Amino acid sequence: MTRKLGWWLLLSTVLAALPASAGPWVQLPDAIAELQGDPGDRAAAAVLESTAASIVAEAAAGRLPAVSSLMEVYSSLVMRLPDGERKVQALGREVAAALVGYGRGRREQDLQAAASAWTLAAAYDPTGPAPGLLREILVPPSEGAEGAVWRSPLDGAELVFLAAARVRVGCSELDRRCRRDEVFFRWVEVPALWVEKLEVTNARYQACVRAGGCREPRDPARYRQPQLAAEPVVGVTWHQARDYAMWAGRELPSESQWERAARAGGGNLRFPWGNLRRQELANVWDETTARLGSLAPAGSFPATGPGLHDLAGSVWEWCGDRYRPGLKQLPPDGGPNRDGIGRVVRGGSWRRSIDLARVSVRSWFDEPYSADDVGFRCVMPAAGERSDAEILAIAARSFAPVRNPGRELEGAALSAEDRRYLERRAITWLMLENRVGDAVLQAASLLQREQRDTVALDLLDRVEGELLAAARLGDLGSVDAILSGLDQAAAVNSRCLRRRLEIAPRVADALF
After folding, report:
1. Of 162, 230, 258, 465, most Cβ neighbours within 10 A?
2. What number is the average pLDDT over the span 290-305?
3. Does residue 172 have a pLDDT over 60?
4. Which residues, including other chains, have CB under 8 Å from residue 452's CB and lie 6 or more apart?
5. How far apart are CA 137 and CA 395, in angstroms?
6. Rounded Cα gap, residues 73 and 81, in angstroms
7. Exposure string over 304-340, b if 16+ CB within 10 A, otherwise e
8. Hey, which residues does 344 pair with through a beta bridge?
9. Which of 140, 135, 167, 169 is nearest to 152 (CA)?
10. 453-462 burial, b for 16+ CB within 10 Å, e for fewer?
């Protein structure tokens, strides 16, 4: 309680130290106080209008972190008024309209930026046009004819529609090469779904990395080469494949869904194209020459069924299931098996023989495993019309803004006084919320422009105790966040550099 009281006093100091003649944000607290006593005060009302207008301007310019930060400050202060909730909701609708307009203007040049703006707009006005715009780019139609194709504006993937079907999962009836974990087949009712025509390529995976939804694969040098952009991405763990699927609003296929796709050309075939071992139809190890091949661009070999490529050979494809030696545990509804070890892979690879490219072949790897012949493709259940809430849940995963604490107001059209007030206020409120690492980053950002800012320096003086306490508790996340902010502050302020050097051995002692 004593610590929080100290930060409340610091906030009071921040407010008292700022000039009354400064910009509208500096004047906003006093304007709220005036309106609480006199709702008709025109000067105070004009301050509210100016701050609201500045948020709308930031929205129209597409500066989303600034919009979020300013709306948070505006809401926390204006909600104290008797009609505060109405004012905040009205501004939210106005800001959402500006964000929608910005997104429409950016859609052709930068779909990710447009969709991020629409996602934020939907948070402020969920009944406006934003959910519908997000629906257009995230989900295909809920129905289609077998083989219908939908192209995703998000990552350019083409998805093929497969109608609901009863699928025999496991060893094909005429297959004499089935292994023990394939022999006992199971009939599964697989609901309708959309399946990516090709395995996820380097180019598509790069889009996810640029958007902040994915981490680069194990061999980033290869995947970055422009001439390999059309090859399947490899060197990705199961978690990386899942992250891509979540970013795209899709999921990794279950074993049953994968076999539904591989058997789309015929329900009981050994290979996606038929029963004959025609290795010229897939990118597999050539047994006749015993020479190892290499990856090829996705879609280099003929399509099977209603237009799907590379379900045999190319790369092993991660599935959502955990591995069990038999098929009895497969859910009858076509979903993934949740019990077992590792994660299932299907389809064989360019390093394996044609026999491991049979439809029923099953294998597995641990989730952290990656290799140059392991990739993935995604599916999306055609589960009827999705609600706006479901669309917004997908958008929140796909278009979540990359957090950059302390830099939310970069580029914002604010006066120097308003910026200083808002950043000082943010420092204090972050400390009150016990978000010490973010508060230190905010202070470091402020010191980059104003090396003698008293509030930022006071914070860094006070935070030493917080850092040592986190170290003694073994809270490595908090320690890393605070030290990161201190490092940024030390780079621009000699006083902070001295303190950073002095605190380092004490932190090490507390940790070890």
Report:
1. 258
2. 87
3. yes
4. none
5. 10
6. 14
7. bbbebbbbbbbbbbbbbbbbbeebeebbeebbbbeee
8. 364
9. 140
10. bebbbbbbeb
Find tokens 């139809």 and name the residue.
Answer: 281
CA 347 to chain centre: 28
In angstroms, what is the C-alpha Rg of the chain?
A: 28
CB 460 within 8 A of CB 499: yes
pLDDT at 511: 73
What are the tens digits of pLDDT across the range 375-411?
999 999 987 777 888 889 888 888 876 667 677 888 8
Higher pLDDT: 258 or 461? It is 258
Q: How many CA atoms lie less than 13 Å away from 129 in the CB half-sphere? A: 12
Task: Please give the angle made by the CA atoms of 465, 468 and 469, to the nearest 5 degrees.
Answer: 85
- Cα separation of 113 and 117, whole Å? 6
Residue 361 DSSP class: -
Query: Are 258 and 361 in contact, with CB atoms under 8 Å apart?
Result: no
Locate tokens 């059309």: which residue? 230
- pTM of this prediction? 0.76
Angle at 343 between CA 339 and CA 346, to 5 degrees: 120
Tally helices (H) and strands (E) across the chain: 17, 10
What distance lies between CA 62 and its chain's CA centroid?
A: 19
pLDDT digits (tens, 9 = 90+) for 11-55: 445 444 445 456 899 999 999 999 999 999 999 999 999 999 999
pLDDT tens string 421-467: 888 887 777 766 666 667 777 777 777 777 777 777 777 777 777 77
Beta-strand relationship, 186-190 and 374-375: unpaired
Nearest CA among 2, 18, 1, 6 for reference residue 424:
18
